[in-house]
Amino acid sequence: MAKNESSVGLLLASPPADLELNQWLHRELRAAILDRRLKPGARLPSTRQLARQYQISRGTVTTAFEQLRDEGYLEGQIGSGTYVAKDIPDGLLQARGMAGISKRTAHSRATLSSRGERISSTSLAIKPVTHAGRAFRAYHPALDVFPLHLWSRMVARRSRQSSRILLAGGEPAGYRPLREALAGYLGSMRGVKCSQEQVVIVSGIQQALDIVARLVLDPGDAVWMENPGYIGASAALRAAGGEMVPIPVDKNGLNVRTGVNSCPQARLAYVTPAHQFPLGVVLSLERRLALLNWANEARAWIFEDDYDSEYRYSGRPFPALQGLDQSGSVIYAGSFNKMLFPSLRLGYLVLPPRLVEPFVAARSIVDRYPPVLDQAVVCDFMVEGYFGQHIRRMREIYAERRLALIDAARSELQGLLRVDDLPAGLHTNGWFECGISDRQATAAASAAEIEVMSLSSFGVGRRVPNGLMLGFATVNPAATKAAVTRLAKVLENLKRNL
Ligand SMILES: Cc1ncc(COP(=O)(O)O)c(C=O)c1O
């Protein structure tokens, strides 16, 4: 390698507070490769040089290099020179949306706005789904038992019988009969207090977060973020310019006192009170009241993400925080994408009265209004009683699948992973007992075609948990048991090589 092909002197943006250093380095180097600031074949500075330049440990640099090598961006051995891969597959370039763009126009000199830069550096890595359901997928409902026949009959009926007016257009706030059905459902099932005027339909909680963030945050505004917490939320809030302030979560949920002491002036707090994501704890009543009190005094907003609260397997479901709100601070969000199926892309918000008009205005700009026929089918499903039946049936199926996972894990993963028995939701967590890191474990599991997520990937600040998130909803008990056996082999192997 000629000296001038080396990339010594490479300048990277400084690490944000809410990202692990190895994740930051991985992201920056990957961006430099995809933008061709680091050309194919270029030699990277040594781990020692990079560590010194950015005052980080060599271990951090090595972890980032190894991940980039596993992903095909880098070649060569650490210690004997690391180079940018000569042939970066098209699939990798697609990650930046560059595929199919001619070389001549790909490097336009026109630039992104600072908002555009922020958005493109915080996107979620959504990969194409190649299996309808695999063991341990933590964020999907059971599609193998979804009542597809009934659903297709209802879709066909709507398409056949819809009045022409339904084909002509919709309202930005959503299909009125669905909003009315939701107001009734949320009042009786979740203790939400609202009129149907406060209910708006969105494509999911993700869109709700994006629009709300744009309405209530200015760049630089502080946001309380649960730590660990949902990456989709921090990405949307960061993309709007929010500065994440990680607030620890303990057995009573978000530690409100820490938030009040460390950042009383925050503009927004993101919380999952019914079932904290990913730890699964419930926000205690005392903390709920303290949170509402702070929001009222600080004139801040609370985003309540009630993503899968319908699924609780013991005890009574805790009603929504929104039902306790006297000052109009809580923005409540729920999703059909977890209760029915992910590609449906329909969810809902219950807005404080002050936010209804601004939200409807924003929605009209984003895409005018949500797709009307899909909303009408969901409305029929609710009004004709199938939705309630579906939730009850799924709760039974999930209870059985949850037990199967916990039983198998407790007998086969002893000494490797200590598995919680979270009483709600679609996943439980396992904590390493033997010095394995969750990143190592997810990489090794993925090589053995086992889908698990590391809990550390949900860490917002420097302190990150070390464990695995294990979904139990997507496959039946027999498949779960077989997958636990395979996971045990992978972890045993890692433990032996520690
Ligand atoms: C905690 C949490 N909130 C929100 C969402 C996203 O919901 P939606 O699919 O409705 O956008 C997810 C998705 O997995 C989630 O885990």
TrEMBL record:
Keyword Ribosomal protein in record: no
Similarity comment text for this entry: In the C-terminal section; belongs to the class-I pyridoxal-phosphate-dependent aminotransferase family.
One Pfam entry name: Aminotran_1_2
Alphabetized GO MF terms: DNA binding; DNA-binding transcription factor activity; pyridoxal phosphate binding; transaminase activity
PROSITE patterns given in the database record: HTH_GNTR
The UniProt record lists the keyword DNA-binding: yes
Record-annotated HTH gntR-type domain positions: 19-87
Gene source species: Pedosphaera parvula (strain Ellin514)
Keyword list, A-Z: Aminotransferase, DNA-binding, Pyridoxal phosphate, Transcription, Transcription regulation, Transferase
Name of the protein in its database record: Transcriptional regulator, GntR family with aminotransferase domain
Transmembrane regions listed in the UniProt entry: none
